[in-house]
Amino acid sequence: MKNLKKTLAVINAAVIAALTVSGCGETKTADSGERKIDFWIPISGAASAVVENLGETPVYKQLQKDVNAEINFIHPSGGSLAEQFNILMASDELPDVIQYDWTKYPGGPQKAIDDGVILDLSQYKDKLPNLMKYLDEHKDIKKLVETDLGALFAFPFIRGDESLCVSWGMVVRKDWLDELGIEPPETIDEWESMLTAFKEKKGASAPLCIGTSVFANAQFVGAYNTTMGYYIDKGEVKYGMLQPAFKDFLTKMHSWYEKGLLDKNFTLLDNTAIDSNILNGESGAIGTSIGNGIGRYMTTPPDDKFDLIGVKSPVLVKGDTPEFGYLQSPVALQTNSFTAISTSCKNIDAALEIFDYGYSDAGHMLYNFGIEGESYNMIDGYPTYTDKITHAEDGSSMMTMLSQYTVAYSSGPFVQDKRYMEQYAAIPQQKQAWKTWTETNMKEHLLPNLYIKADSQDKLALLDSAINTYADEMISKLIIGTESLDNYDKIIDGLKERGIEESLKIRNDAYQSYLKK
Amino acid sequence: MKKSKITNIIAKDFHINWKLYLMVIPVIAFYILFCYKPMYGALIAFKNYSPRLGFVKSQWVGFKNFENFFTSPDFGRLLRNTLKISITSLIVGFPIPIILALFLNEVKISALKKFIQTTTYLPHFISIVVVCGMVKSFVAPNGIIGFIARGFGADGTNLLMNPKNFLPIYVISGIWQTIGWDSIIYLAALSAIDAEQYEAAEVDGAGRFRKMFSITLPSIQPTIITLLILAVGKVMNVGYEKVMLLYNPAIYETSDVISTYVYRLGFETQNWGLSTAVGLFNSVCNLVLILITNSISKKYKSVSLW
Question: From A105, A428, B267, B296, which residue has the greatest number of CB atoms within 10 Å?
Fold first, then answer.
């Protein structure tokens, strides 16, 4: 008996020792006077290709010098970001500062404040001179950043110019247009004849290579004065599929599918498939972005003739300015770009000062252009990136270099400068597309940042999941023809069964309180 | 009195076999830490779970999460698809490794046997993401299966765009993936059969098929039944990985299953309470099924798991 006890005790000790070894790994430095901040931030793909930790990049090294503080960058690793964030939330001690998409916190940003996870920065107005100055000068931005209760849950990433909210649109093969003598298409009819020509004369097997996400960005469906999803029309939130015109749009798409103009595999497309189709001449029109799309295709074109041109969001009547198109909010809510200070922060004053710096003149230049004399020079008052950024000696792309010397390519606690994009979109095709895509009235229809009340938020998340899945499925089936357009009313009933009316009501209520701000 | 006797026996046994007890400790620790300890987390099925408040402090909501699931307009379809996919996989997929094992057992050329074994095992070692990538390119219009299908009059769209094709693609690729690996256990059972039985049967003039049906199959019957009971216990589990990698909105009708629904709830809407409730419902169904099959098998074949 004695022996048994002894052995058990030994084993116990061994197990406990093993558990402690595997379980530790956190060291505490809780010195409140120290200007040292733990900063939890997802690392971008471009940056992680070069460094393991953002603290090693020149831009963040300089930031630490400028604000006279030590920032310890913690990057979530392994598994999905959402998973890592959830684990973080469940832990007792949070990092001092967390940059994430706070709408992913169950109940939303306001709930995160109420639950005592993050601080309401509006309580510290005196210590945020630069951010407050910017918000006071830009009331429209302030409305987007503040929750309905007037709380400021994070340091926002702000696009400093309307043109920065447009970075995506439709492009077509310019060399094909020239060869066939076709003008860049504006109307749905012009699109149809162009795509038919691509199919018949250029042998394109999938002339229009787009997935349904392109409709969510209002292309084609915008011609019918509606879009896929929610939008504002005459002071009211509306849902595209419920509008009679949406059926007309689907009828058109179904006919394009039948005629072989729309990619037969449109529900299965991924980036690899789209790349391969446009580069191999299987497709003549795609939806793509300025940097990772046009920039990439044009720097390594498949042959000398290959050329792309950006075209406007399609309309029904020639000469009309597109009502709908692609547009992001200047403060895009559902992005990992909100830097919040956690309630566990050991030195709140330091954290406030460090992140307020991004909105000052010096911080603005650092985040957007990096270090003067190294990554940019002032030429005639214009911050011009040096050759080090634009033509790196080791052949690194401009994106890679920007990811080391700036934060403008990604997002963070600062105001993005238009002059970054002007230089990043350096190729004529990029400039042309960027200019063309901005010509819409989408500003009138874009849903602003809505802060849904916590109790409605849970309900809304559930409704949205069911509605989005159902809408995606039905739109795909109606275009393919596995579901008949004659059943459109029944499909609307299906949407109602899944709570579209309640969802619209919650959104309209939130929109009304947005208007009252 | 009796109790102290038992502890006495254990203590004595421990004294002799203490090395064995020591060896079993990591296994027990594993089950306690990773299987039993997390089980109390299932209580969030009855809560409006907030990660910040944690398991204990989150607000109780009773059966609301279950209600939400059962009244969801897609509930019928999810359940139907899950059962359809897993039962078809079971009926079609279960006998095939047995047939392969029987076939391999009859192959006398060892080089050929090894070749077949290696090639059938291979897909098991490929990551599911890669397997699904391969399946997708096989069924694309210019892939090998898509090409053959076009020969039979398919209209040149991707086979995965048609709701009717999802089930066959899922089940057949599943068989391709697991056939070799699943046959290993039967091969092991086959090698345990006493060779004298076959010799005696040969003397009695039994042919190859006679021997297969009268000796081989009855000998591996307990193995087959045990594996069948275990397989029935997984009927409600259709893993989300493979379905998610293969499905697309055009075929949700036949491909959306309970686990993909749970995935979307958990990761897109952060509703862990509801997704746990659905998972709990699944586990309870599986447990009931396994109990039923086990008792049937116990009654008629006197083979059972416990």
Answer: A105
The count of other CB atoms within 10 Å of the CB of residue B306 is 4
Neighbours of A400 (CB within 10 A): 17
Tell me what percent of the residues of chain A surpass a pLDDT of 90. Answer: 76
A176-225: pLDDT as tens digits: 999 999 999 999 999 999 999 999 999 999 999 999 999 999 999 999 99
Overall average pLDDT of the A440-460 stretch:
89
User: Among B16, B22, B52, B255, which would you mutate to test the A interface (most chain A Cβ atoms within 10 Å of its Cβ)?
Assistant: B52
* B284, containing H or E segment: helix B272-301
Looking at domain A36-161+332-366, its CATH architecture is: 3-Layer(aba) Sandwich (3.40)
**Contacts of residue A470, Cβ cutoff 8 Å, sequence gap at least 6:** A494, A495, A498, B73, B74
Residues B6 and B112 in one domain: no
Query: Amino acid letter at A101?
Result: D
Query: Residues of B with CB below 8 A from A465's CB?
Result: 264-265, 268-269
Nearest to residue B44, comparing CAs of B265, B299, B194?
A: B265
CA angle in degrees (0–180, nearest 5) for A256-A259-A263: 65
Instruction: Give the whole-angstrom CA distance, residue A273 versus residue A470.
Output: 25
Nearest chain B residue to A269 by CA: give it: B248
Question: Would you say the C-alpha torsion A104, A108, A111, A117 has a positive or negative sign?
Answer: positive
Chain B residues with CB under 8 Å of A480 CB are 161, 250
pLDDT single digits (tens) A249-261: 999 999 999 999 9
Same domain for B77 and B52? no
The answer to whether position B306 is within a domain reads no
Q: What is the pTM of this model?
A: 0.84
Give bridge partners of residue A237 from the DSSP assignment. Answer: A232
| Chain-chain contact of A465 with B264 (C-beta, under 8 angstroms) | yes
Q: Which residue ranges of chain B lie beneath pLDDT 70?
A: 1-3
With residue A89 as reference, give the H or E element that holds it: helix A81-90
Q: Quick one: how many helices (H) and strands (E) in chain B?
A: 16, 2
Chain B interface includes A476 (CB < 8 A): yes
CATH topology of domain A167-326+442-516: D-Maltodextrin-Binding Protein; domain 2 (3.40.190)
Residues of chain A with CATH 3.40.190.10: 36-161+332-366, 167-326+442-516
> What domain range includes position B20?
2-57
How far is the first Cα of chain B from the last one, in angstroms, to the nearest whole number? 29
Let me know the angle formed at the C-alpha of A337 by A450 and A69, rounded to the nearest 5 degrees: 135
